[in-house]
Design goal:
By secondary structure, the protein is mainly beta. The protein is built from no helices and 11 strands.
């Protein structure tokens, strides 16, 4: 039923690492951009990282050098490797698939898809 499903979140101590996974129910081979966003209660959702079909990445300044986004088109999965986590990284992390120009899916399915999110808590 779900088009996008995030996993891998949890509680981790500062300085620790987590790897988030975003499993897509359909091929992401032709999905132009996939990304991760995060949101804290009371604040707007913010971009964490994106990667295009051509491999171009974009990271929020706050995570550069610590996070790495990747996509596995064979497994239809998007990953976010998070290293040296900080308390301010605590948030619900959402996966986004921009299928608005994905010709591999019917026109009526060409839109953005969001997962339900996975909680990441960085605390001692």
């Amino acid at each position: 039923q779900a088009q996008v499903a995030e996993s891998g979140g949890g509680l981790v101590q500062p300085g620790g690492s987590l790897k988030l996974s975003c499993a897509a129910s359909e091929s992401i081979r032709y999905t132009s951009t996939v990304g991760w966003y995060r949101q804290v209660p009371g604040k707007q959702r913010e971009l964490v990282a994106t990667v295009t079909i051509g491999g171009i990445t974009n990271y929020a300044d706050s995570v550069k050098g610590r996070f790495a986004i990747s996509r596995d088109n064979e497994k239809n999965t998007v990953f976010l490797q998070m290293n040296n986590l900080r308390p301010e990284d605590t948030a619900v992390y959402y996966c986004n698939l921009d299928r608005s120009q994905d010709f591999s899916v019917p026109m009526w399915r060409r839109k953005e898809y969001w997962g339900q999110g996975t909680q990441v808590t960085v605390s001692s």
